[in-house]
Amino acid sequence: MVSAAFLCAATLSAPAADLIDACCADLEARVAELEAAVARKGNRRVSLTLTGYASKQIMFWDDGVERDAYVTDMGPTQATNFRFMGSATIAPGWTAGYLIRIQDLSSNPMSLDQSTAVAGTGLNTQMSYWYLASEQLGKVAVGKNALASKSAAMFTDLSGTQIIANYVLFDGNAFFLRQGGKLLGLRWGDFGYCYSQQRPWGGDCDGIVMDGVRYDTPTFAGFSMSTSYGGADDWEVAARYQGEVGGFKAAFGIGYSINLDEATQPPRVSLDKDSAFFQAGGYLQHLATGLFLHAIYGAENNHDAITLRGGFTEPDTHQWYLKGGLRRQWFSLGHTVLYGEYAEYFDQLSPAALNAGATESELSRWGFGAVQEIDAAAMSLWLKYREQGVEITGGGLGGIDDFRYVSLGSLINF
Fold first, then answer.
1. 22 Cβ partners below 8 Å, 6+ apart?
2. Where are the domains of the chain?
3. Which region, left, alpha or beta, applies to residue 205 given φ > 0 means left and ψ of -120 to 50 means alpha?
């Protein structure tokens, strides 16, 4: 009788064991599949985080004769990107870490014009550096990085619209001018040219990323300072503040840079470069009402040297920018931001503009927009309108037609 019972139990347990084995095999296969699909760490000592955002916009433009719609990203340094970052604790108060940032420039708006709807360079390693940080002594970073004064004024904008609307000529930069409907060989960016980086940024003239060494002090009561050396001859210093004072959210930034490297970015423009850029900006928001104001001033000094081919002098230039609006949460989705903006760029004449006979210029741009944040998806949706015009002295370049565009876009963080 006992033998029969054991035989019966063994017979019944065999199918159950088979089911367990099959289940475990399926689970192991699924785990292996997931492991193959995720970022892997090389060791247990240094953390690894993958983060970034994806952002695109539809740009409906009108140059007075032609009209079209392009799909673009947000421009260099603000394009869709993903970042690998991490750190490790060396000792109490001491850490070491790294950051690698890859950006997608496959639809760069600074390369688009009336006949070019798609242009870009694909993926680009924007940043790649390591750092050593001390809570008491500050942080040193070495590699391809945003150096000390990069965007010191622009990044004071805490309204939630900094990427969407700022004083850099990301949108419409490469479109050709029209004069009485006739297409010219000059572009809008030829009247927003920065010699510090040899690019038509309009604002944030020394806002490029480059190889270098940067030092940041610890933050004391909201204040910090930075200094850096980069490229062949790029020296930068900056000071920043962020905090709350008397019911207001406040941020301020000031920066100064000197660039002596003629080969900062190809192609080479200056024969003997000596460009300095000063920038100052701030942000003030009344916390109770959500009313805010953001302001920037920038000035580039090229030391009046005859350093361009053809014997032209690199002009000294300046620009200013104002943005004001309201940031309130009216819906459960998240905050809504309504804003208006205005900017002017003075005498930012490119080598092409100087060769065309231009001696002075004043480019102006104004616009307004609305942004809806969606907290549950770490997402922002926006609709914005902008219009720009330019007054030019010399070269028979008067009466330039205005350029207008409407953009509908979205940004989602991950």
1. none
2. 1-38, 49-413
3. alpha
Q: Sort residue 394 into left (φ over 0), alpha (ψ -120 to 50) or beta.
A: left
Radius of gyration (C-alpha) of the chain in whole angstroms: 27
C-alpha to C-alpha distance for 164 and 411, rounded to whole angstroms: 9
Q: Which two tokens stand for residue 153?
A: 């004024």
Which residues touch 175 (CB under 8 Å, ≥6 apart)? 61, 63, 112, 113, 114, 187, 188, 403
Give the Cα separation of 100 and 85 in Å (integer): 6
What phi, psi does 395 have (nearest 5°)?
75, 10
The tokens of 408 are what? 């509908």
pLDDT confidence of residue 12: 42
Residue listed under structure tokens 């065999």 = 14
User: 119, 114, 118, 116: which is closest to 67 by C-alpha?
Assistant: 114
Q: Which amino acid is present at 399?
A: G
Instruction: Using the CB atoms, write b or e for 4-40: b if 16+ within 10 Å.
Output: eeeeeeeeeeeeeeeeeeeeeeeeeeeeeeeeeeeee
CB atoms near residue 314 (< 10 Å): 26
413 CB neighbour count, 10 Å cutoff: 12
CATH architecture, domain 49-413: Beta Barrel (2.40)
How is residue 291 written in tokens? Answer: 């009313």
Compute the distance between CA of residue 187 and CA of residue 176 in angstroms, rounded to an integer. 4
Question: Who's near 201: CB < 8 A, 6+ residues apart?
Answer: 168, 169, 192, 194, 207
Q: Strands (DSSP E) along 45-200, which ranges?
A: 49-62, 67-72, 81-91, 94-104, 123-134, 138-146, 176-179, 182-187
Give burial (CB, 10 Å; 0-12/13-18/19+) of 49: exposed
240-275 pLDDT per residue, tens: 999 999 999 999 999 999 988 777 776 777 777 788
- Please, which pLDDT band fits residue 4 given cuts at 50, 70 and 90? very low
> What is the reported pTM?
0.88
Measured distance CA(252)–CA(28) in Å, rounded:
54
- Residue keyed to tokens 């433009």: 61
366's enclosing H/E stretch is: strand 360-374
Q: Which conformational region is residue 324 in: left (phi greater than 0), alpha (psi within -120 to 50 degrees), or beta?
A: beta
